[in-house]
Amino acid sequence: MPATGTRQQRGRALTPDPGAPDPADPTPPSGASPIRRTGRAGRSVATAGLAGRIGAARISGTLRGRLAPAERRAELRDRAELRTAEQVAASLGNMKGALMKLGQIASFLDDGLPEPYRVALAQLQADAPPMAPDLAEAVVTRELGARPAQVFREWDRDPLAAASIGQVHRAVTEDGRRVAVKVQYPGVADAIAADLSNTELLARLLPMLFPALDAKVLATELRERLTEELDYRHEAANQRRFAAVYRGHPFIHIPAVVDELSTTRVLTTELAEGARFAELEQWDQDERDLAGETLFRFVFRGINRLGMFNGDPHPGNYLFRPGGEVTFLDFGLVKEFIPSEIAVFHQMIRTLVLEGDGEGYRQTLEQVGLLRADPSLSTDEIVAYFGHFYDLVLERGPRTVEREYASETVRRVFGTNSPVAKAVNLPAMFVIVQRINLGLYALLARLGATADWRGIAEELWPMVDGPPSTRLGEAEAAWLAFGRPSPP
């Protein structure tokens, strides 16, 4: 079983548009921006073209299928769907920005997505097409004041990974530290603004990838998610806080930030190694269970004990080692909750899970604005609807997180068929928390993770403060007993 999983980027380098301006530099070098069509009009053309290709491919495939012999129809349909999926992945990867982030989310979020689309889009989680090496080096030069070869003792021109906003390069500092350097794509801010302001075309494209989801809700999530990520100084501050909190933890690792080599568009951190999520999925079930438990503990300890939530549960944001050890990457979106908000979360848990008080739970929902007061809805209906989100922790004992559970969770978040769903609002404090329902549970389902989730949750809920319920819980309790650092 592999213990390391960092790998060379296998995508092709993007060819820059000649003369395309870099909005961050009025005098960029030739071919400064790898983001194709950064303006709204150009991005609109690209998005419309993608939507058109999807539609045309489906029509063409349908016609060929009707003309083919019955025994070949399924084969032709599968081939056409795979070709279309590969076109979508390539187009979204090259466009970067919001549309690529959409592809990343699509690849692991909704079990209603056809399998060829899921497989093709999965490459965007860690293997998106990178920008040309010269462009990455130009960004580093502008941000750090010298070329990478002058700033670092060693600089790997081939990126470790390329994603929707930036890509990561290996390097070695002058004092010998092995680091990961995240470099933001030139022009990505304009590309994102163009994508997210073009609601009409997003409304056309989103339903093709997410036929079961509400396009407007998803577009809003993308807008909030991506604007937070653009400032790497913000991300560095978030990462420093988490690294301080988890210093010395037995199975959770946060790479340290190298402050002197970090700016708004370049983020340098300690280099971490481990297996990627796709590799983890091939490990023994016991190892997958331990990794799932660590993900669960990290999310819910953050909210319940620290008042902080790293809001991007995504397959590309973790590195795994045996024994449940996980390195957490990407702190671009972190929500800090105030005490009154945490008190609401705890009141919801207390009434519904610990006390079984449906009326009290309903009153809490209405008081915080999560549910509009509607006398036509019975409390039993409300508890049945919202109880799904607490299902893993309603009772003690081992429970496997299955794909059906994750898919139903997504449908409840975005669906409007239920009369209860039509009465649901989403106050600001709950928007980011939905990433647990949309991301964490999808990951646990892909792992088929099994644990006593109620026992683990009771360790993390302050109003219970339960004893360790697992081997990882005992290790964490020992770490806590020796006085972990407080958040800075």
**What is the helix fraction of residues, given as a range?**
40-55%
Mean pLDDT: 77
From the spread of the alpha carbons, the general shape counts as globular
The tally of strands reads 12
What structural category characterises the helix and strand content? alpha+beta
Oligomerization = single chain
Provide the gyration radius in Å.
23 Å
The helix tally amounts to 20
Q: Please summarize the sheet with the most strands.
A: 5 strands, antiparallel
pLDDT below 50 for ≥5 consecutive residues: which ranges?
A: 1-45, 47-68, 80-86, 88-98, 107-114
Indicate the proportion of strand residues: 5-15%
> Alpha-carbon distance between the termini?
37 Å
Task: Give the structure's gist in a few sentences.
With 488 residues, the protein is of the alpha+beta class. Helices cover 51% and strands 9% of the residues. The two termini are 37 Å apart.
Structural description of this entry:
- By secondary structure, this protein is an alpha+beta fold.
- It is built from 20 helices and 12 strands.
- Strands 1, 2, 3, 4 and 6 form a 5-stranded antiparallel sheet that branches.
- It is globular and about 65 Å long.
For this entry, give a set of tags:
disordered N terminus; 488 residues; three-stranded mixed sheet; five-stranded antiparallel sheet; 9% strand; alpha+beta
Secondary-structure map:
Layout: H1 40-67, H2 70-95, H3 97-109, H4 115-122, H5 133-144, H6 148-151, E1 154-155, E2 161-162, E3 166-172, E4 178-184, H7 188-197, H8 199-209, H9 215-229, H10 232-245, E5 252-253, E6 266-270, H11 277-280, H12 285-306, E7 308-310, E8 318-321, E9 325-328, E10 334-336, H13 339-354, H14 358-367, H15 379-387, E11 399-400, H16 403-414, H17 428-431, H18 434-447, E12 450-451, H19 453-460, H20 471-481
Helix pairs in contact: 1-2, 1-7, 1-8, 2-3, 2-4, 3-4, 8-9, 12-18, 12-19, 13-14, 14-15, 16-18
